[in-house]
Amino acid sequence: MNDLTEIKRLWEEVPPGSQEHLAGARTALLEAARTPAQGKPTVRVPRLRRYGLRIGIAGGLAAAMAAGVTVVQVGLGDSQGSDGIAGLLAAPPANAQQLLKVAAHAAAAEPDLRPGPGQYIHTETRVMNYWSFGSAGAHISRTEERWVPADGAKQWLTREQTTKAEPVPGVPMPSQRPIPGVTMETEDSLYESSCAAGSKDAITEAQMSDWPTDVAFLRKQVQAKAAKYTAVPEKLREWEAVGTLLRSTVFRPGLTAALYQITAEIPGITLVPDAVDAAGRRGIAVALENDGVRSELIFDKQTYHYLGEREVATKDKTTTVPAPPPISDKEFDDLKRQMVAKGTDPAEATKTLESLRKKKQPATIFKPRGAVIGSSAVVKVDLTDALPPLSTKVSRMKIPC
Q1: Most CB atoms within 10 A, among 50, 277, 327, 355?
Q2: For the chain, how far is it from start to end, CA to CA, in angstroms?
Q3: Which of 161, 163, 162, 169 is nearest to 137 (CA)?
Q4: Are 380 and 122 spatial neighbours (Cβ–Cβ below 8 Å)?
Q5: 244-291 pLDDT, tens per residue?
């Protein structure tokens, strides 16, 4: 994965900005970076609820980890009962509000992780996305891991590995092999924030460790974050903001319990009796639908612990994505200089950027009714004292504050 691809994958996990906030040249670059130089356009269908919110990054295949691990959540097997939680309801939840209430009870009963000085919060996640290749498509699954310094002052690492490509019901698989843009290599990305230590612009896990579990306090955090999502439909802004905070606070179940209470107040949420996360675990979900897409938060059917997320198309929909304009010579030179400064081989940078000089064709995205557009599954959250050894393929990036 080169720098341009990583930039695109990084920022597509963040709610998109308004036109006045996006520079045209950068937008063109980020859109074009995902399109192969030859053949039909390849488009990774974006998700409304994005995994890896605060930092907007993701990592993958497990490697040798440093000592000092305290596991909070692990589970890829079938659901098992939980003392005191299953008995809260004599029958399955009748509506979304009731499910969130019992999920809040379950979360409140779990211990929080309290990272010490210098420690990293490590999460392991399974992710599946629908990738569109012209009229064809495929479900691309990968394993993602990330190591985030609790104090925000160190570098953080993401690791990912694509594990499989599977057919999407009702959509032909792409004929080209290997599938464009899909690699089975383990890929590391090492990030550093430009925010000064303690900056109010960067909410670190250390700050969240001290947040009160007060619903009123967290409601203000949700509202403040939702107000920034100006490019997101208004009915989805608080839903997006809650999801963002949930993904950043998986190490603190006490906070997620309060966030579930806030989620229960969002108008239009519904109950989905059966949902499957990216690890194949069946659960029950709270959902919000908009413009033919149902976005779900999935919980274990017996313990009511959080499992992951899913987005499902609720109607057939074909979307044409306009082709970005080719980059100029000046943009070419500026981008090459930036890539080389970050360690990219000059020849590789030239090869990558040459494709962005060419005129592109519009990309067509077809999402059949019932297709899973994206899903995730949190399978582990723990603390480590150090980053693991890096893989042989590493990209480095500094993230603007």
Answers
A1: 277
A2: 23
A3: 169
A4: yes
A5: 999 889 999 999 999 999 999 999 999 999 999 999 999 999 999 999
